[in-house]
From TrEMBL:
Alphabetical keyword list: Membrane, Transmembrane, Transmembrane helix
Membrane topology summary: Multi-pass membrane protein
Lineage: Bacteria, Bacillati, Bacillota, Bacilli, Bacillales
Top-rank taxon, per record: Bacteria
Annotated EamA domain residues: 7-133, 146-278
Natural source organism: Fictibacillus barbaricus
Localization of this protein: Endomembrane system
Keyword RNA-binding: no
SUPFAM superfamilies: Multidrug resistance efflux transporter EmrE
PANTHER family, per the entry: ACYL-MALONYL CONDENSING ENZYME-RELATED, EAMA DOMAIN-CONTAINING PROTEIN
Protein name: EamA family transporter
Length: 307
């Protein structure tokens, strides 16, 4: 199965994340905690057989797993918080700057270089992403606070992905995701207890949103991207996520009435063009590296074709 198929599925899935966050009235730390807790419950039947592998994890890797989970929790806290203060387009455009931080971090940590052609694709895609959010980037104090939170969320998720790229060279993808999500749940729980944020007593609608956040953008988004890190670089995943502002802005227009200007529609087309160009050139760079058999990101078993 071509790699671009799970990439597209992941982009569509994460595009729903901002809509669900907007629909919820619960504090973002509660949303993030239950989003990941429900994801853990969904993964448990498929990952428990890998628990024996945990004894092989070195102390260094254990620390990196803790840091990865902590940075993931911070990402959700910052980015989901930004959606309460600014528009979907503004928040996701700033989040789409993630490849810049990932590329810099990958060069510093792994001396990972990007071709000039791929760099051009990145520039085109980021230019289009800026056009998407241009009409919604606010000048009020509230919007500025939201923009700052989104930038912080972008930085910490880039660190999370780079740590994941290192750990997934030796750890099974599903076990990595499970441990990182569990760590993030614990971080959220401590945060909620410390700030005395209620973790129970929410209406049925909120619990439904928590479950949707777990199934759609987390399992078919983040878990899928974690798995893909075994076959492509963190920079490639970050570039793929540039498709999120397109999907999220379109969904925001259709579902919550956030309008889009002509410039934003044009920016969406430019993002997709730059994204395609980048991925094509990244694939050429890795053409000599054979891909491992495709496995299901949740079960870690082979994906079966439907007849």
């Amino acid at each position: 199965m071509p790699i671009f198929i799970p990439l597209v599925i992941g982009i569509i899935a994460v595009s729903f994340s901002s809509i669900f966050v907007k629909w919820s009235q619960a504090p973002v730390s509660v949303q993030g905690m239950y989003r990941l807790l429900f994801t853990l419950l969904l993964m448990l039947p498929f990952v428990w057989k890998q628990f024996a592998y945990m004894r092989k994890i070195s102390n260094k890797d254990a620390v990196l797993l803790f840091l990865s989970g902590t940075f993931l929790a911070l990402h959700f806290l910052f980015w989901m918080g930004s959606l309460k203060l600014t528009t979907v387009a503004s928040s996701t455009i700033l989040l789409s700057l993630q490849p810049v931080f990932v590329m810099v971090g990958a060069y510093i940590a792994f001396r990972e270089k990007t071709s000039k052609a791929a760099m051009n694709g990145m520039i085109v895609a980021i230019t289009g992403a800026i056009m998407i959010g241009w009409g919604d980037i606010g000048i009020s104090i509230q919007h500025i606070q939201g923009d700052i939170l989104s930038i912080l969320g972008t930085i910490v998720v880039a660190v999370h992905m780079l740590i994941g790229q290192k750990l997934l060279k030796t750890l099974p993808a599903t076990l990595y995701s499970f441990i990182v999500f569990l760590t993030a749940v614990i971080v959220f729980a401590v945060y909620n207890i410390f700030l005395e944020i209620p973790m129970t007593g929410y209406p049925d609608k909120e619990w439904g949103i928590f479950l949707l956040l777990a199934i759609i953008p987390t399992v078919f988004g983040h878990v899928l991207f974690n798995w893909l890190l075994k076959y492509v670089t963190a920079a490639t995943i970050s570039m793929a996520i540039l498709g999120e502002p397109v999907g999220a802005s379109l969904l925001a227009y259709l579902l919550i009435g956030e309008t889009l200007s002509f410039t934003q529609w044009l920016g969406g087309a430019i993002v997709l063009t730059g994204l395609y160009y980048f991925l094509q050139n990244t694939r050429k760079q890795k053409k000599d590296k054979p891909l491992a058999p495709i496995k299901n990101p949740v079960t870690a078993g082979p994906i079966m074709k439907k007849g």
